[in-house]
What does this fold into?
Amino acid sequence: MKQARSLEHQLFIKYRLDEHPTKDEISKWYGKTNDYIVSGLDIENAGKLAALDCFKVNESIVRKSQVDTIEALLAMVKKMVDEDDVEQ
It folds into this structure.
């Protein structure tokens, strides 16, 4: 159950990824998503476009599982990034 709630798994499900993303890929996705939001895209399209840039997306995959909202996912990544900054 813990893996199903993990950030990596949530992104894996939401964006139909071939494999679970790494921390570096997630950080890159977070930055790109925020860049797209600042440039005027709505949050859902910003996240999707960033996913296409940062992950191996497989559009043919159909997953019937619910995930957190993109706002919740971004908050999870922000927490991860902030914790990594504190550790360094």
